[in-house]
User: Fold this.
Amino acid sequence: MEWLILIAVVLVGIPAAAWLMQDSLLFFPQPVGSTAHLQVNAAPLEVVVPDGTHLRGWIAKGATSPAPVVIYFGGNAEEVSWTLSDRRWPGEWTIVGLNYRGYGASEGKPGQVALQADALAIYDTIARRPDVDPRRVVVFGRSLGTAMAAHVAAERPAVAGAVLVSPYDSMIAIGRLHYPWLPVSLLLKHRFEAAADAERCHKALLAIVGAADSIIPPERSRALYDTWAGSKRWLVIPAAGHNDVAEHVAFWQAIAAFLSEH
Assistant:
């Protein structure tokens, strides 16, 4: 009888713990420390989304006005000021990045429904600015953020194109990869079914993956890429992993070429 009780505890207890802990396993909010790394053209930006939540980040203005714009959606453990401060962004482009709910100085708590709704609100706000060329707004997602970028591209036909770095087809597929002993499809609240959005995306795509990415393997990225309905380019960077793919020259060369075309 004791063994039956132990087995029941394991079979019920582990999935229950996973259910309760899944938010902390998926989202890793980062605070804003010093912003001394930001360039002089970066200014604080706040967007108030329809439910009243204040999202905060920065806008690094490009050299032209109205300017083409990249709207950046970061990874699950990223505070976006570091990516916005990178000097390898093409100078004529304005770069926008808002921290997710609960990240940086943004209010609220992250979750799939909220983050995807926020992404649409961010796009709508930026596209209406007088210093922005609404015909040349590119959404850029990295890792977790690729689901937000794909969602905006699917829901807003005016998007000029999308750059997805380490994309994935669904969080269920990623969860099964890392937790094969769990009934992920039954437990997961934040499913981020990016492939369903990709099927509705008819704008140009640049997908960049690291050949040595063990967090989101290239085959999961390829599953998303294969469903994308628009024109697309696939770039694999040899020896690059999940966290260092942007340190390769080919990464920024491909982004500059894509943006110049759109």
In short: The domain at 2-261 is CATH 3.40.50.1820 (Rossmann fold).
